[in-house]
Amino acid sequence: MEDDREGGALTPPRGSGAGRSGVRPGAWADARSGPGPGARPEIRVANAPCSWGLIGQGDPGTGYARMLDELVETGYVGTELGDYGYMPTDPAALHDELADRGLTLLGAFAGVTLRERGVVASARERLLRLAALLAEAERGPRRPYLVLADADGLDPVRAASAGRVTPELGLSGSEWKVFAANAEEVARIVAGETGLGTVFHPHCAGFVETPDEVERFLDLTDPDLMGLVFDTGHHVYGSAKPDEDGQSAVAGLERFWDRVWYVHLKDVDGAVAERARRAGWDLRQAVRAGVFAELGKGTVDFAAVLDVLWRRGYSDWLTVEQDVLPGMGTPKESAGRNREFLRGLGL
To answer: Which CATH class is domain 3-344?
Structure first.
């Protein structure tokens, strides 16, 4: 009913202290002061196993050691965990694999069917196993995140409607209460047992996909307890309309800024997105057709996205995620082109 994939990092809470969880998000309390007047804040760039085909759909065909080597060779300095068991599950071994390559472990994705009553109790052991691995393997001053999401693809109607969700497909009022309470319970457990923060990842084919659903979720959850992973690609495709001016991600980032702790960079091929909507494809079919394009080859105005981040003082990680299915494309070459694109924008 639930899955582990990949996840998070950190950015500072917006005007909040430790929060009711008793833990500040990420390790912002340990970070240095921000840049001086007129200086751009430092932003570091990571990539993730999903760009090599590890998206909960089976063996990507590339072992973790090769994937990490290629990630470093193409210019990235951080990574996410990927499916539990893809990389070593012994914390010391995982630490050594990453440290030998100069990589920071940013977090791990955990999908949970949050609308189900009692689901946290059944998922507790799995979630704490994952969080403990993060907490023990990453020994740097900043702490990884548990990246929590609604387990996508399990409801057949929502799975078939990814990228074109309408309000009548949403949760009921009572389901929203259960969903939000479960998410907060996960965050409290993770913070209490491991000291790590939790960020929520809106995800196509899950029950928090559209911008209005994201807003409803944020309204129902504690801003000191739960941050937001803003994923440019899932936001644009999940908005269920063409991104004609390339500003959908910018508008979303501004709309949800007070809750954004961490950012994923993902582009969307507008032509594939519209074909997917017209043909009624599910998310897997859309991904197979290349809906998540290389950076700069889709509709997202990344120069404008970075302008918002710099202007707002964001000074932590951006993780490139070009979701592909196992065997798709040329992951190393795409990762290299994505990194060069961001260098051209000043990163």
So the answer is: alpha beta
